[in-house]
Amino acid sequence: MRSLLIFTFIIYLGALASMVIGVFASQALAQTPEAAAPDFFINAEIENAHPYLGQQVTYIIRRYQAIDFPNPPHFEEHLFTGFWYSPLIQRPTYTTTITGREYRVHSTHLALFPTLVGALTIEPARLIIPGDGPEADTILESQSIDIQVRPLPANPPPHYTGAVGQFEISAWFNPEVGQVDQPMNLIVELKGTGNIKGLTEPILPDLEHWVTSMFGSQVETKVSLSKDFIKGSRRFTWMVVPRQVGEQFFPAIRFSYFDPQTGRYESIRTEPLPVTILSGETDSTFLSPAPVPRQEVLRLGTDIRHIKPVPESLSSRSVSVGPIFWVGIAISALTVGGVWLWHWGHLRRLDNSPPARRRRAGQQARHILATARQNPAATEARIYQALTGYLTDQLDCPIAGMTSSQLASVLNEARLTLALVDRIRTLLTQAEAGRFAPVSRPPEAATALLDEADDLLDDFEQFFAER
């Protein structure tokens, strides 16, 4: 029995568009109409249509060309809403024959990680082939792809923070010998396969003779590209302070993840870390500053020492200037002031530092929400864009694409109240659900979502202003 290749593509020529659906038998060699074997087309597919939340899905776009392109083509920017994504190593070009016509095939592989449970749609990819001179561009469009994301099993382990994949853990001290009340580096490394950039720090044990919560962790991420999976490591470094002298063991550090291959949660841990803590020269040299010795105040004289004698009478010279002089001074001052103000405003607009982004975050979010009221059809997308962009700028951490548990972890780390965390998670979930719903929300429901987004933004502004 012969296998069938079925594909759908749309060709745009200026304002005209036509859809071509081809059904080819792989062994067919008979002559077919030109429309059934076009010069170019693209096709998209995925390798897993029913992934777990956070499990990698490989998305493949194949570009078929029977002749040379008139001009170098390029893919239009693709928004993978509801996914975090990363490129994979690309395969070499190969040739294939379809209905007697030979095609060169260029494939692009991406790793997608779904961040929402339920039905998600990967929008069509679009390839733009620029036309020659006055000729219109040719735009090829692949089919959209629907997937059904499964939720993770209930009752995760206590140390589970949202990791999906296969991982291993290791830890060590640097230096290996410490001094009481002096900071030393505790390094924990997670290594494996999965969404490496989405890994959150393991939970350190709460110990009586160690200070572990004074400093946050520094994070170093290394992602190595491969043909099939995202692999790499994420290293967390804490500054911890020992409070007790002697030979001791730092307890094992635990980490849990969900393995989609087995469908089970797995728990791993480090070995207890042996560490030697020496006594310091003084007690509490790090946590208690040394006292400053008191000094005697010395008397150096009994009277003011004059620089020079005071003259018997003071004299002054008058300088006579006319009105033209003062007009020139005023014009110069206004010119310099205007140039300075323009330059200062220009630098503020170009400034992309974290403080500058935090300063502009509220204004930009309100502008996006205002445009949503003018275009109700894009309400959910605008709400998601406004709130994730606002939190990204305020926290200096990319929020879009995070899972709900990852978002909660980041917001809890930023000391947000539980009420604010619950409200933002609920609103973003509603916005994401509305974007992929088969029917649009009623106008009153969209307005209610926007009102809640405005109120939530006000509360965020108040929280960050008081922090």
Produce a short descriptive summary.
The chain has 467 residues and is an alpha+beta fold. Helix content is 25%, strand content 33%.
Please explain how this structure is put together.
With 467 residues, the chain is of the alpha+beta class. It folds into three domains: 4-149, Immunoglobulin-like (Sandwich); 160-278, Sandwich (Immunoglobulin-like); 354-466. The chain has six helices and 22 strands. The chain has helices spanning 323-350, 354-374, 379-395, 404-413, 418-435, 443-466, and strands at 4-13, 16-25, 40-46, 57-65, 74-75, 83-87, 94-98, 101-114, 118-122, 126-129, 138-141, 145-149, 160-174, 177-179, 184-194, 210-211, 218-224, 231-242, 246-250, 254-259, 264-269, 273-278. Strands 13, 15, 16, 17, 18, 20 and 21 form a seven-stranded mixed beta sheet that branches. A five-stranded antiparallel beta sheet has the order 2-1-11-10-5, with no helix packed on it. Strands 3, 4, 6, 7 and 8 form a five-stranded antiparallel beta sheet that branches. Strand 7 and strand 8 (101-114) form a beta hairpin. Helix 2 (354-374) packs antiparallel against helix 6 and helix 3 packs antiparallel against helix 5. The longest helix has 28 residues, at 323-350. Residues 1-34 and 282-292 have low confidence and may be disordered.
